[in-house]
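Deviation from plan, reported transparently: CO-5-methoxybenzimidazolylcobamide complex.
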Amino acid sequence: MTDYEALKTAVMRGKRNDVTAIVRQALEAGEDVNLLLDRGMIPAMREIGDRFSRNEAYVPELLIAARAMQAGMALIEPLIADSGRQPLGLVAIGTVKGDLHDIGKNLVAIMLKGAGYEVLDLGVNCDIPQYEEAVRQGASILGLSSLLTTTMPYMREVVEHFKGRGVKIIIGGAPTSQAYADEIGADGYSEDANDAVKLVASLLAGEQNA
Ligand code: B1M
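Because the crystal trials were delayed, the predicted structure below was used instead.
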């Protein structure tokens, strides 16, 4: 049985080797990947963020926690993503211009791959020409992630840019919401990575029925 508290502490303290060891051991024991994320790794990032808000942690601590989180995710990704099935559709996802947060976006990409979608990961600090290129390569859904209130407005610019083009745009990230998606005219919002998979499935099903 995995010690989720130890996993959470290891991520928060940026103990990459400890995170790798705990996740590896858990996976070998057949632990549910979602439990590792939901009880250990994601709460760790939330808590380090709360400490940052209270000036009890600083950017370097966020950074080393993020690296430890990514080390754990690197072990999890192949298990979820490599299904070898025929892709269900092409989805592009990127963190919007000005924003460098990529852990949530990476998680959404991993879950989408695991659900059988082909994913074009556009990375961070993604501008309209990059989303354009993804559409040129055949993406019918663009996923926009933002973690900063200062980068959210760029989502509106992307939505407006693609208006009337038949490209579906979904948004997510902590400061965003369904209300914000409605306000800027996005086709959907999801709160977390699992929800994003359901949203993509329903949008693509809608396209097929149209
Ligand atoms: Co930054 N940061 N950060 N940070 N950081 C936050 C976001 C912050 C809330 C911390 C705080 O003050 N409590 C705050 C934003 C405040 C605001 O705008 N209101 C903040 C700040 C201020 C900053 C800087 C400005 C700090 C500075 O330099 N003074 C700076 C900005 C840099 C930039 O982007 N230009 C900065 C920098 C950084 C680091 C580089 C150090 C690092 C990022 C490393 C990396 O990503 N590789 C970092 C981190 C780690 C965080 C926190 C602690 C953790 C974010 C995270 O990874 N969460 C964060 C605090 C917090 O979130 N509580 C914070 C875990 C992840 C799994 O969750 O990303 O929410 P999340 O993703 C979820 C959902 O939101 C959703 O699904 C995911 C999985 O369930 N989701 C989607 C996300 N994208 C989606 C897209 C979808 C659908 C769902 O469809 C397309």
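The longest strand covers residues 118-126. We consider this an acceptable substitute for the interim report.
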